[in-house]
Specification:
- The chain is α+β, with helices and mostly antiparallel strands.
- 25% of the residues lie in helices and 28% in strands.
- The chain has 9 helices and 15 strands.
- The protein has a 4-stranded mixed β-sheet. The chain has a 3-stranded mixed β-sheet with strand order 1-9-8.
- Helix 2 runs antiparallel to helix 3.
- The longest helix is centred in the first third of the chain and has 17 residues.
- It starts with a helix and ends with a helix.
- One zinc ion (ZN) binds next to loops.
């Protein structure tokens, strides 16, 4: 069963032609597959709307439909062409003289330049403080000799004779839609509408040229490995006056064996010999601001974590810093000399149950968790 075209477009039976065109155009935009990527029926819906538009946009067809319905049109030998179109871009070309999403790009329109990317490598300290780095990258930029217009300096740029300066070639054909005008980019001026009488010797008249560019990039404090910084308009030059693409600076933060990064926190492992853990000691802890001394309490257990507040990485764009978690790794002596064995055996003999009790404030759960860290 074919649906009522008025219902498909959602317009009143006496809607003027102008309104029908406007409604269809809006509907076509929302049903366009570039917008409706997750709706598998978008194409069918679109074709149904196109068919409804075919009928209602033609006064004669509309009159027949109003009186006799779909059968009336059929008996007149009418059949929809909406299903015969290859792509959405073709349909937009047919109805509106262009795809609203610029898919085809062959109509002499402005074309945005492509994006490009460059990698920078930073140490963890640089990532923590933020830094300025110079990046050098290759891109297709506007030719400097001709300023992008493709003409040898001092020579004239003339209106293209083939397309008369419009940049487009039009082919007109008669279809059931009415007159169908298809525009393609002019093959002489590639859509510019203008041609250089003497092409630029530097770029061969293309107006664009591969070049090397160096740029200073401000890296904000706290940036993480694989984060990207977007610099708008620093990518490849556009065509026919289109804007340039973007440059992405991909940040690599080299691994630092002293620190493990977890979000904005830094984790450091510090070895503490077992006797020092039992007796208490001072150990050296590496921090982003240099080495620091840390007091280890007598009776410190393996896996104890000391938190240095605000000594981690800054959060990008915010003032707050993460913490540095210092994990105390109690190292049990190995390869003992006979004399050392003697001393330890003596120690073992002297230990009471009280010496070997875990700290009072610690549950079994937190002890297991500490052991598994
Ligand atoms: Zn040039
Ligand atoms: Zn031309």
């Amino acid at each position: 069963m074919k649906r009522d075209p008025y219902e498909v477009l959602g317009v009143a039976r006496d809607a003027p032609e102008r309104e029908i065109k406007k409604t269809f155009r809006g509907l076509a935009r929302t049903l366009h597959p570039d917008v409706n990527t997750d709706d598998p029926n978008a194409e069918e819906h679109f074709k149904e709307a196109a068919e409804a538009y075919e009928i209602l946009s033609d006064p004669e067809r509309r009159r027949i439909y109003d009186r006799y319905g779909h059968e009336g049109l059929q008996s007149q030998g009418y059949s929809s062409q909406a299903h015969g179109f290859g792509s959405f871009a073709d349909i937009f070309d047919a109805f509106f003289g262009g795809d609203p999403f610029g898919g085809a790009g062959a109509r002499g329109s402005r074309v945005q330049g492509g994006d490009t990317a460059v990698e920078v490598e930073l140490s963890l300290e640089e990532a923590a403080r933020g830094t300025d780095v110079e990046v050098t990258y290759e891109l297709v930029g506007a030719c400097e000799r001709c300023q992008g217009n493709g003409a040898e300096p001092g020579t004239p740029i003339e209106t293209c004779e083939r397309c008369g300066g419009s940049g487009q070639l039009r082919a007109v054909s008669q279809t059931a839609f009415g007159q169908l005008v298809r525009a393609t980019a002019c093959d002489v001026c590639s859509g510019d509408g203008k041609v250089a009488r003497t092409p630029c010797t530097e770029c061969g008249g293309r107006g664009r040229k591969a070049q090397r560019r160096t740029l200073s990039v401000d890296i904000p404090p706290g940036i993480a490995d694989e984060q990207r910084i977007r610099l708008g308009g620093r990518g490849h030059a556009g065509e026919r006056g289109g804007p340039a693409g973007d440059l992405y600076v991909v940040v690599r933060v080299t691994a630092d064996e002293r620190f493990l990064r977890e979000g904005n926190d830094l984790i450091t492992l510090v070895d503490v010999p077992a006797p020092a853990a039992a007796l208490g000691a001072t150990v050296t802890v590496p921090t982003l601001d240099g080495d620091e001394e840390l007091e280890v309490e007598p009776g410190t257990q393996p896996g104890t974590i000391v938190t240095l507040r605000g000594r981690g990485m800054p959060a990008v764009g915010r003032g707050r810093k993460g913490d540095q978690q210092v994990v105390l790794n109690v190292v049990v002596p190995r390869n003992l000399e006979p004399r050392q064995r003697e001393l330890l055996e003596e120690l073992r003999g002297s230990l009471s149950e009280e010496n070997l009790q875990p700290p009072e404030d610690e549950s079994l759960f937190s002890r297991v968790r500490r052991a598994l860290r």
